[in-house]
Specification:
four-stranded antiparallel beta sheet; alpha+beta; 11 helices; 17% strand; 10 strands; 306 residues; Endonuclease I-creI; 39% helix
Length: 306
């Protein structure tokens, strides 16, 4: 058994959830005096509204703050010096973890993140998560969703009320994290409905908008009833998610692993050579997200041997 396998056997559900928060929206700041980790929970909308009962509204700021109090206590049990701060510009809430010396938790974090002390623009899912049990993998995904996931009725497939989806955001610079998420959802047995890549073939296939419009976050989309097996520790997100599930037709996505992709030919787009794309994607054309995933997989395998 290698060291990663040994580490995964000691990985707790609390640590797995913490890693999901970090990979999703964490930034590490190092200095001579102390090291800090900041995890941002942005207010995408100041009010969350139930899709089946418009009178059921959630003040995002209040609900998020209250839910984070419980998460702070959970992280403190790991021996972490963690505090909660409201953004001065009222754009969100942040959790801040401080290390005044490189103790065991800092060293463990360094190992799990492959020494990548930067931010969510480049973090990958730790190998120990892939090698841990399913409950810990779900805890990681729950943490990732709590900082990057969005639940609202406007995310339905084809605009149909009975096909509601959630989506998880991935920073546009972090293409390989999208591949990691696809693989981890596959391991826990939850099918991804689609991936809306920040690529011209997906965001603006017919080049109707301004150049570079497509260069936004990647979105991993999952039917709400499938994602309910993961859920959220943020009360307002969990309640809206539950209501979305009530809207969906029974069994939606249950046979997704068996369905054949409907691949439709997309028009050639001059933005396929944009400087906003990484070099290994320039000049490539994609008709389906599975084709782009295959290129990421191939590139990732090459990187592993470099």
């Amino acid at each position: 058994m290698d060291i990663t396998n040994k580490l995964s056997s000691f990985l707790s559900e609390d640590v797995a959830y913490f890693l999901g928060l970090i990979v999703g929206r964490g930034t590490i700041i190092k200095s001579a005096e102390l090291n800090k980790l900041v995890v941002d929970f942005p207010f995408k909308n100041l009010e969350a509204v139930s899709p089946i009962d418009a009178s059921k509204k959630f003040d995002t700021q209040i609900y998020l703050s209250n839910s984070l109090d419980r998460i702070v206590e959970r992280l403190k049990r790991l021996g972490l010096d963690v505090s909660k701060f409201n953004d001065e510009d009222n754009r969100g809430v942040s959790l801040v973890v401080v290390w005044r010396n490189t103790d065991l938790t800092w060293q463990l974090l360094a190992y799990l993140l492959n020494g990548d002390f930067s931010d969510y623009h480049s973090f990958r899912i730790p190998k120990a998560i892939f090698q841990s049990d399913k409950e810990k993998q779900k805890e990681f995904l729950r943490g990732y969703f709590d900082v990057t996931g969005y639940v609202r009725a406007s995310n339905s497939q084809f605009g149909r009320e009975d096909q509601q989806r959630i989506y998880l955001e991935v920073d546009h610079r972090n293409w390989f994290l999208t591949l990691d998420l696809y693989k981890l959802f596959e391991k826990v047995g939850i099918p991804i409905e689609s991936i809306d890549f920040g690529h011209p073939n997906f965001r603006d296939p017919n080049f109707k908008k301004a150049a570079g419009f497509w260069a936004k976050e990647h979105q991993v989309k999952i039917f709400a009833n499938q994602f309910l097996h993961i859920g959220s520790y943020l009360k307002h997100k969990q309640e809206v998610l539950t209501d979305l599930v009530k809207m969906n037709k029974a069994g939606l996505g249950d046979n997704s692993s068996e369905k054949q992709f409907r691949i439709r030919e997309k028009a050639q787009n001059p933005e396929e050579n944009s400087e906003k794309l990484p070099d290994f994607l320039k000049g490539k054309h994609f008709n389906h997200y599975s084709e782009l995933l295959a290129v990421l997989e191939e590139k990732d395998n090459i990187k592993a041997y470099e």
